[in-house]
Amino acid sequence: MSDVYPKSLIETPRISPRLGIKSSFSKIKRNIALLYLLWEANDEKVDYCFFEQRDNDTKLQVKQSYLDSVFRYVESYINTTAGPISISEFGEEIMDFELLKDQIEQLQVAFQLLWPLAKIKFEDDTFPDSKERTGKARFSKRFIFTSNIDLLKYSFEGQESLYKTLLSKWLTEKTDGWSLNKSEFSGSESDLEQADEKLCKILSILSDNTVFRLRQESDNVFFRKEGIYRALSSEDSVDIVGDDESKGPLRILKSAVSENVEPYIVSESSRKKVHLKSEYNDSKTWIGDYAERILTNLELSRVDLSEGKETTVQNTNPGAKSIVGKNIIYYGAPGTGKSYGITNYIRENGYPDYDAQEGNDNVFRVTLHPEYEYSDFVGQLMPVVTDKDNEKDSSNEKITYGYKEGIFTLALKQAYANLKSEKPVFLIMEELSRANVAAVFGDLFQLLDRDETGKSEYAINNQLLSEKAAGGNKSDTVFIPSNMTIIGTVNTSDQNVFAMDTAFKRRFEWRYVSTLPVRDFNNNPNILIHGIDHPVTCTWQMFYSTLNNFIVDELQLFEDKQIGPYFIKFPKNDSEQAKMRINNLIRDKLLQYLWDDVAAVARMSSNKPLFIKSIRSFSKLYKEYNAGKQVFSNDFIETLKKAVDEGKNETGD
Q: Partner of 294 for a Cys bridge, out of 128, 167, 226, 431, CB 3.0 to 4.6 A?
């Protein structure tokens, strides 16, 4: 029997600090208590969908089974003005808790960034995070808990009665008509106060890594709570509001301070400044030492896996210059998530709140095609129709010529403008291999060599660029500044459209995007493939992983013919209409690719077919699949059945 080793380290993406979102969140204690109780009273699993929409309503309610468990946990600890609380009264009041009422983005800032207890996503993950920004409708959410929830539990091990009383007390705080019934609690009021302070201190430690931002005289100030503590070690009060409206985690921190969730600081009447609570005010040395312990903890949490390799040290201030300019190409099979990887790169290296749909003034994006040329990329003279006499009579119109700047010129101009502020600029070039990139870049090719700062090692003379982008004289040289990054994508299956020469390739970092699914992969419905004797039912992940292995191992083709996990993006519900849509997507998107790009090439490399030999045209393939008949070869069906029967690891390992 071979040795078994730990599973390899899983790379986890960084998350956005959400510094610009309006994320108010109030009545914090009762919502933390409810979130914890939903977890502990319901078997302490990882992943839950606690809520559902009430019939014919836009509001959420706790699913009955989960509600019953929480109610049994606390019913003897809560009274109403009329006496003991009933399950119906409990459920109706819970519907008004912010955990159910607030938008998902507010919950994410609270429970992913400030108190990282759970990752929160829509149950239907086709919904963007902005789904609830307009209107009053709220939608079911998934709560994927972190190990911090275990920390809360273990902190009160052996004190279960005290903890249950405390959580019930937190539920009743700021809940009209509810009060704590202490008849089940044998401890003192002092015990309860100490437990309250203890839980607040634990929550405070969990939020030590949270980044906040305020505006001061048009500049951003980024800080963590230890920055507040360090300032209070020598000053009487600290401004945590600045000159503009508080946003992101800072907005919720202010609520936490005013609601006495923060254990060490309290806000002044204006809520603009904070100072130490009276019991800590005479011990400024202690708060300074505590801040240093936090910094040491943060330092030790930054593990470097490079093992001595040269690395780029990144600035921890979001929004500040964190990388030198680079040339990068993300490449891989179709549907692997290359564009998504670019979005994450931008978020990690300058703009944490970047949204590919909403865009950003410092991110420029273009998709190349076979007709795309240097003049499109850099700029060209274009006719402009003007009215000679500012009248609507078309006979007065005249044609002049003006210079239309291309996307490279626009990005370069922005990069030059941002040099003083060191804000990064990103030029995204999708589908690089679908154009003749050597011709598209032309003389700009010389600029792609960069020095250690990220600036072009060699400058060029280009009169138009010098005037339009750099704002200089025609004789001035042009270079790519250190704050400008160029990122391209290449589908490996398209590399034969326009082959890139070695000189161009070596000026880019090539980052392979694997066909293996990312963690928490959920584009994964069950699909049905008609087989030899009966249909084979499996997940999309199982199917495409088996297909990729078959393409390489049996059809003897290269990896560029494989497909990625997002080659097809499926609907996220189990309705009959969705199942029909899934079947149609496989027919309309996958079969065409496999017939033209895989099966046709495989005939020259392997004796094993992908489709049954009697199918000799795509029209027959389409017709047979539509009729619910077997279209894949017996060899492939047997391979798929074997993978399903063995419960093969869905990561494709």
A: 226
